[in-house]
From TrEMBL:
It comes from Candidatus Kerfeldbacteria bacterium RIFOXYB2_FULL_38_14. The keyword DNA-binding applies. Residues 12-78 form the RNA polymerase sigma-70 region domain. GO terms for biological process: DNA-templated transcription initiation. NCBIfam families: sigma70-ECF. This is RNA polymerase sigma-70 region 2 domain-containing protein.
Length: 156
């Protein structure tokens, strides 16, 4: 175990930067983000004996801890919002960079949903646990959102 702890300490600054950025993209409040990152590293220290290098790198292992910790945080926070109330802006013609910038300007709740689904690869069931919506409602919402984004993009 001391060898594993030494490895964690040796990679701490690199891992800290990685975990902080990972969490910061997904949590808008910086103080909450810092608290979550601290909790994640405490959990990593507590569970270091379960790290198995044959199953992946230390970074992959701590990413798993981070994802689970964020899911638990979101469940506790119970992010709720009415999916029907989302109104997307009309989108001009754009390239990939402009598209990325446009996504940055979407309302925070839409960005969060898109991040959970397409960046974090959460299932509809996992997102439903966090938002309090049903998986069926989320599937329908994402289907409509995708069609709207695609149609507006193709219109230009």
């Amino acid at each position: 175990m001391n060898k594993l702890m030494d490895q964690l300490l040796a990679e701490y600054s690199t891992l800290y930067d990685y975990v902080y950025r990972y969490v910061r993209v997904r949590v808008s409040n910086e103080d909450v983000c810092r608290d979550l990152v601290a909790d994640i590293f405490l959990k990593a220290v507590e569970k270091i004996q379960y790290f198995d290098a044959s199953k992946g790198s230390l970074r992959q292992w701590i990413t798993g801890i981070t994802k689970h910790h964020l899911l638990n945080h979101w469940k506790r926070e119970k992010h709720t919002f009415a999916l029907e109330d989302f109104d997307l802006p009309i989108m001009p013609k754009f390239d990939q960079l402009e598209f990325d910038q446009l996504i940055d300007h979407l309302p925070q709740h839409i960005q969060q949903l898109l991040t959970w689904r397409y960046v974090d690869d959460l299932t509809y069931e996992q997102i439903a646990d966090v938002t309090g919506r049903t998986p069926a409602a989320l599937r329908k919402y994402f289907s409509r959102l995708y069609k709207k984004l695609r149609n507006e993009y193709e219109a230009y």
